[in-house]
Amino acid sequence: MKYHGFELVAFEVEVLEELEENLGKRIVIIPDDIIDYRLLSLELKGKSIKSIPDSIGNLQQLKVLDIESTSLESLPEIICNLSQLKELGLHSLQLKSIPDSIGNLTQLEGLWITESSLKSLPEKICHFAKLEILHIECTPLESLPDSIGNLSQLKELYIESTQLNSIPDSIGNLQQLEELYIESTQLNSIPDSIGNLQQLKFLDIESASLESLPDSIGNLSQLKELRITQSPLESLPDSIGNLSQLKELYIESTQLSSIPNSIGNLQQLKALTIKSTLLKSLPERICNLSQLKELYIESTQLNSIPDSIGSLSQLKQLYIKSTPLMFLPDSFGNLQELERLGLMNTSLESLPDSFVNLKKLGSVYLSGNNIVKLPKQLWLFFSKIKTNFFFNKSKHRLSFNKFKKVYSDLNEEENTFREYLYKLAMRWFPKRIAELDEIIESDDVIFQKAVKAVHQNWLGMGNTVAKTIYGTLIGAGLLRIYDELFNTESNLLLFLAIFFSLFGVFIVIIDFTMKKSQ
Q1: 420 is in which domain, residue-wise?
Q2: DSSP code of residue 144
C-alpha cells in the first residue's frame, strides 16, 4: 500500500494514518516503539508534544523533518544523527540555541528556522556543503556567522530580524546565490562584497536604517528584480545603470528625492514603481527605457513629467496617484501602446489635446483631480474606440458643478464635444439635467429641441404627443450630430429617424384606441 506516495505494508499505513490523525491533539509523548518505520517524511505539530524519543535517530531513511508549534525548548541531539535528512524545518519553537552537532547533517539542502528566540547561529551551520536554501526568521537574531560564505551551493538566503546590524563580508563568496532577502530595522549598511554575487537575480532589502547602497551593486550583472523598502535611503548610486538585465525596480517608503540619469541605461526594465518617497521629478533619460511596460508613481512630490515620456513606445500601464502633478506634456499622446491610465488625486486641471491619440486606451481613472478642461475632440475619440472613463470610484459621484463648469466653458466651435457632454449628463444626472438648459447655446434649433425632448423624456414628464415629438426629434438630432462629425449622410441614422417617428405615431394610435374603448 502507498502512504503519501511511499510504498509501505498495510500495518505500517494503518499506524501512520492513526498517528497523523491524532498527532498534536492527544499525544503528549511519542512512544519509542511507534517510530520504527521506513519513513521518508515526518511532521510533528502541536503544543501538546513536549518531547521527542531518542528512537527518532533510527529513521535513517528520513529525508524531510518538520517540527512546528510544539513545546520543545531545545533540539534533541539525536536529530543530528539523521544522516540522509535533506530538509529540516523548525517553526514557532522556543529554541534559544541549536547544538553544534547539527553540522553532522551533511546531506541537508534546505533549512528553515522561523519564529524562534535565537540570537545567533552556530558556525557549524556553515558546513553544509549541499545547502541550497537558508531561511531564518528570528526577531532577536543579532549576527550571522562570519563563515556563511562557505555555503558554496546556497541559492536562496532569507534573513529577517529586528536586531541584525551587519552582514558579513564573506557573503560575497556565495557564488551560486540567486535570491537574497534581508529585513532588519537595525541594518545600516550593505558590504561592498555584495557586488561579487554574479548569479544573483532577486534582491530585496527592507531596513529602517539603510541610507545608501554600495556602488558595487552595479556589478550584479544577472540581477532581474531589485526592491528597496522601508528605509531612509536618500539616493541611488549611478552604477545602478549598469544592471543590464534588470526587469523590475521597486522603491517604497524611502527618502529618495531623485533618480540618477543612468537609469536610462536599463534597456531591459519592464516595470518601475516608486511609492511614498520625496521624488520631485523624473530624469529626461527615462525616455531611453524602450522596454518599459508599467510605470507606477504614488505618494511622491512629483509635480511635472518630462516631455521625453512620449518616447516610452512600449508603455501599457501608467498610474500616477497622490502627487501634486499639475499638467501633462503634449508628447503624452505619443504613448501609442498605452492601455490603462490612472491619474488620481493630483493637481491636474486639464488633459492635453493629444490625449485623443491614445488609440489603444481601454480604461481611464481620473478620480480626485481638479480637471475643468477636456480635449475638444474627446467625443470623436470615444466614437472610434471603446474606452471606459472613471471620474471617481463610482461615475455616479461625479461632481455636477464641476461637470457644468466644463460644459459652460466650451466655445461655440466645440459643439461636438458639448453634445457629447450632454449625452454623459443624461446618463449621470437625469434628475438635474434641467440645470443645463440655461447654458445650451447651440444655434441649431433642431438639435436644441431634440435634447430638450430627451430631457423631458428622462424626467418622465412627457405625454403621448410629447413622445411622438421626441421620437421624431431624436432621429433628427442623430442625423444632425452625424453630419457635423463626418460631413456626410447616414442611411442608418435616417432609418432610425423614420423608425422613431413611426413608433411615435404607433403609440398615438394605441393610446387613442385604448381611450376610446374606455
Answers
A1: 411-518
A2: -
Cell of 257: 528625492
Is the pLDDT at 6 greater than 70? The verdict is no
Of the residues 63, 90, 117, the one at which a domain ends: 117
For residue 461, give the amino acid letter. M
**Alpha carbon distance 496, 70 (integer Å):** 77
Task: Please give the pLDDT value at position 385.
Answer: 46
CA dihedral 243, 246, 248, 252 (to 10 degrees): -20
Q: What residues pair up with 3 in beta bridges, in sequence order?
A: 6
Determine, yes or no, domain membership for 401: no
Q: H/E/C letters for each residue in 189-233?
A: CCCHHHHHCCCCCEEEEECCCCCCCCHHHHHCCCCCEEEEECCCC
> Reduced to 3 DSSP states, what percent helix, strand and coil does the chain have, rounded to the nearest 5?
35, 15, 45
How far is residue 24 from each of residues 50, 71, 309, 326, 348, measured CA to CA in Å?
10, 11, 59, 61, 60
**320 φ/ψ angles, rounded to the nearest 5 degrees:** -125, 115
For 378, how many CA atoms within 13 A lie in the half-sphere containing its CB? 25
* Residues near 292 by beta carbon (within 8 Å), at least 6 away in sequence: 269, 270, 271, 272, 312, 314, 315
| Count of the separate structural domains present in the chain | 2
- Spatial CA neighbour of 5 closest among 504, 24, 213, 16: 16
pLDDT at 318: 95
477-496 mean pLDDT: 51
Residue 47 domain flag: yes
Cell, residue 6: 511511499
Torsion of CA 44, 49, 54, 60, to 10 degrees: -10
| CA 320 – CA 375 distance, rounded (Å) | 20
Instruction: With H, G, I as helix, E, B as strand and everything else as coil, classify residue 332.
Output: helix
Beta strands at 2-3 and 6-7: parallel, antiparallel or unpaired: antiparallel
For residue 427, name the pLDDT band (cuts at 50, 70, 90).
very low
Phi, psi at 201, each rounded to 5°: -115, -25
Residue 203's contacts (CB-CB under 8 Å, 6 or more residues apart) are 180, 217, 220, 223, 225, 226, 227
Last residue of a domain, one of 84, 117, 150: 117
Dihedral, 395, 399, 404, 405 alpha carbons, nearest 10: -120
Would you say residue 327 lies in a domain?
Answer: no
Whether pLDDT at 383 is above 60? no
Cβ burial, residue 352 (10 Å; 0-12/13-18/19+): middle
- C-alpha span between 295 and 206 (Å, rounded): 22
The CATH number that applies at residue 64 is 3.80.10.10
Give the range with max mean pLDDT: 72-81, 129-138, 203-212, 369-378. Answer: 129-138
| Cβ-contact 61, 38 below 8 angstroms | yes
In a domain, 475, yes or no: yes
Nearest-angstrom CA–CA distance, 422 and 474: 14
